[in-house]
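For reproducibility, we list the full input for the pyridoxal-5'-phosphate complex.
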Amino acid sequence: MSLRLAIDGGERAVKTPLPPMFPGGMRIGAEEEQAVLNVLRSRRLFRYYGPAPGPSQTDLFEQEFAAHMGTAYALAVSSGTAALMCAMAALGVGPGDEVIVPAYTWIATASAVVALGAVPVIAEIDESLTIDPADVECKITPHTRAITAVHMRGSPCRMDALTEIAHRHNVSLIEDVAQAAGASFRGKRLGAWGDAGAFSLQFNKIITSGEGGVVLTNSHALYKRAIMYHDVVGGYRHHIPPDEILPGVNFRMNELQAAIALAQLGKLEGILADMRRNHAAIVERIADCARSAGILLRRLNDPTGDAGLALVLLLPSAECTRWAVDALRAEGVGAMALYRPDVEDYHVYRYWAPIMNQKTWTEQGGPWRWAARTIEYAPDMCPRSLDLLSRALHLNVSPDLSEAQIEEVATALNKVLEAL
Ligand SMILES: Cc1ncc(COP(=O)(O)O)c(C=O)c1O
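The corresponding predicted structure, in tokenized form, follows.
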């Protein structure tokens, strides 16, 4: 028997506000408090020195992060954008180069390319809402230096296909793991597949230190170059011979951030397990209604490795999705469409204003003038991505949903799916 929709005056399915989507942030507790207090009391806020002897929190965090993700090296930095820039600088991305990025990612992925003097080339996404390997192949030119695989909303890209393409064309593969810390593809953690992985610890992310980032790699040569880029005297500090030292900036992490990040890393598996359990519970409860309505979930390239932080349904049309968003919001579920032509959202390429308009910091030069060929962008250049995103109905799946809230969210979804 179908229930009356809240949008039509029926009772709301969700009775109490759902938890805010700050997975690690909402679990800040005694461990983070104690870790910060320890650092403050030691008066050592800087990773390289201070009054307290012994290893720094940043060193410890790097060691544990690399071990957790299964790589030889991790470098803690100040943000996910900084991590992307360090990874790209380490790989030698620079003026004249092209870097392939997906049409759906936070603008930072493309901005990092431009910051290095290279140009982003935008590729379509597929039904997983991650970069489409087939379109990547079409976008490769003799000037392509790297491919950026962005694991959007906790979901792994097709790393097997992307690795094969990168090898065959002799280009680098960078993973942007900002939204998918701890998730995996075929049993191997994301960030460990590519030449380098870039993580963010900004407050929305699965684990957080407010701001922060990590570069992951198995290559000692790349690690050394990333160290030099992230710290103006990183080369000197790490005893690299002066004639090999390259110029750097300052993207260092401080000890307070590292102490929080270390405490959060200890909570990562618990957060992932809870999100995955909640995701599975909702999917199970809506499976019949979704099947009857002919609605599919976004494709998961590895359902086991998925972080479970987002439930995304692909509806038949953008109009349908917009109606479902309104209906779900009336039920008390904060759903959204991933693309609406009337809503500016810097996760969708057509709203990347400085990229679309090829803005640079100087009149004389800049990435697009240094490019080896003319690069053009247009708002409708990735029609498949816009179509998929406009039909994508997105719900956050908090690790902190109660059993009752899982039932309520599923009820809300079933009411709306039945009415479609
Ligand atoms: C996919 C993606 N890449 C990169 C970033 C940049 O990270 P940050 O904000 O830490 O610089 C973010 C998050 O903001 C992101 O979601």
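The mean pLDDT is 97. The pocket of pyridoxal-5'-phosphate is lined by residues 79-81, 105-106, 108-109, 150, 176, 178-179, 200, 202, 213 (CB under 6 Å). Both points were considered when choosing residues for closer inspection.
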